[in-house]
Amino acid sequence: MNNAVAGFSKLSKEEKINWIAKEYFSTPTEAIALLKNYWNTDEKIQNLHDEFIENTITNFYIPLGVAPNFLINGKYSTIPMAIEESSVVAAASKAAKFWSTRGGFKASIINTEKNGQVHFIYKGDVSKLALFFAQTKATFFSETESITKNMQKRGGGILDIALNDKTNLLENYYQLHATFETKDSMGANFINSCLEQFAKTLKNEALQYDLFTDAEKDIQVVMSILSNYVPNCIVRAEVSCPVADLKEKQIENPLDFAERFVQAVQIAEVEPYRAVTHNKGIMNGIDAVVLATGNDFRAVEAGIHAYAAKSGQYSSLSHAKVENGIFSFWLEIPLALGTVGGLTSLHPLVKLSLEMLEKPTAQELMQFVAVAGLAQNFAALRSLTTTGIQDGHMKMHLNNILNQFDATDTERITVRAHFKQNAITHSAVVALIEQIRQ
Ligand code: MEV
């Protein structure tokens, strides 16, 4: 039976580790050694990471890989990707190379509006609330001036505030729905600060509003928070080429390939079981770049999946067609990203990733991320509709099994040679390693 602990957060890092090791591990010394083995030898870097979150005990590594040869809007880039899943970086690189000789990727920003809401309860006459809001709207702007000053200097700020009647969904539920432009920052802090000020203004102004009865003056703010659903912050990425140009080693009949590819996308458009996996493949590329560049991948995930379900049914984020002999493949996704603020200037590898991308603006980063998602989706669908996914996956998996067994160089050569001719399965690889070692 494990014990509860009081004041854990106040313990030093050493004390936390000692407590955990003693409490949960049969070999505490080994657990402590492993945790410490992952500490950075540079104390400054370690302290920095310790302070990103609370109760840090060590670092959790995820590989940072790169996918070169991405031709985007006529310019080559190498895209940094932080991800633990094998095959993803290889697939992105392969798709990048494929499209670099077929016109490259085109990416564009459709819009960049963020939003947030003050959710509140008002028990009274709707028309009086609407009149109150119209008469006090300017105050919401003036009372947030100290928060918006800097953002305005950078060309951003509050775009608009609207009063929404949501009483058809929930009794007495209304909201202030505010829209924002946050330029190169993701904007979470800025938006939340504005919203919390709106909430104060709302309550204060209501108390002083003569047309309200006492009950109407008593507005109850439930919460004020940005929304990670950003359907008006959209980036588009696309590729296209004449169908005949799709020909290469694995694509002997390009028209047949293009048609099958379009069918695969159409299946994801109409069938949620497939759409989820299809979009998961897109997220392999998106999350990896979002993470490498220090952005909030949970926010991106939540927002994108909500967007995928905007019609009421979860569907494919990407689309494809063959028209007049031209194959086109594209996606449009919502992305709220930042290239300033947050981790971007704190995490040394995030800074490095952003420098590798030539210090992009938030809009440029949106384009890189969307392209990585499309490339990943192309690579997955290409494998699925030709050789099948396991072929490439198992080759990478083979590496992981060899690492698991600490295979020597000679063992690796023998195993790889054997599986050039034979199907790779986990048990077959293990059996061969054991046979070699006997
Ligand atoms: C695996 O991580 C992603 C795929 O399943 C995506 C897809 O099926 O399109 C290969």
Automatic annotation (TrEMBL):
What catalytic activity does the UniProt entry give for this protein?
(R)-mevalonate + 2 NAD(+) + CoA = (3S)-3-hydroxy-3-methylglutaryl-CoA + 2 NADH + 2 H(+)
- Return the protein name: 3-hydroxy-3-methylglutaryl coenzyme A reductase
Species this protein is from: Flavobacterium muglaense
Fetch the CDD domains from UniProt: HMG-CoA_reductase_classII
Question: InterPro entries in the record, alphabetically?
Answer: HMG_CoA_Rdtase (IPR002202), HMG_CoA_Rdtase_bac-typ (IPR004553), HMG_CoA_Rdtase_cat_sf (IPR023074), HMG_CoA_Rdtase_CS (IPR023076), HMG_CoA_Rdtase_NAD(P)-bd_sf (IPR009023), HMG_CoA_Rdtase_sub-bd_dom_sf (IPR009029)
EC number(s) from the headed UniProt entry: 1.1.1.88
Enzyme class, UniProt record, top EC level = oxidoreductase
User: Which family does the entry's similarity section mention?
Assistant: Belongs to the HMG-CoA reductase family.
Q: Which Pfam families is this protein grouped with?
A: HMG-CoA_red
GO terms classed as biological process: coenzyme A metabolic process
Q: Which domain of life is it from?
A: Bacteria
Instruction: Identify the keywords attached in UniProt to this record, alphabetized.
Output: NAD, Oxidoreductase
PANTHER family assigned: 3-HYDROXY-3-METHYLGLUTARYL-COENZYME A REDUCTASE (PTHR10572:SF24)
Q: Name one GO molecular function term.
A: hydroxymethylglutaryl-CoA reductase (NADH) activity
> Which pathway is this protein engaged in?
Metabolic intermediate metabolism; (R)-mevalonate degradation; (S)-3-hydroxy-3-methylglutaryl-CoA from (R)-mevalonate: step 1/1
Which residues are the signal sequence here?
Answer: none
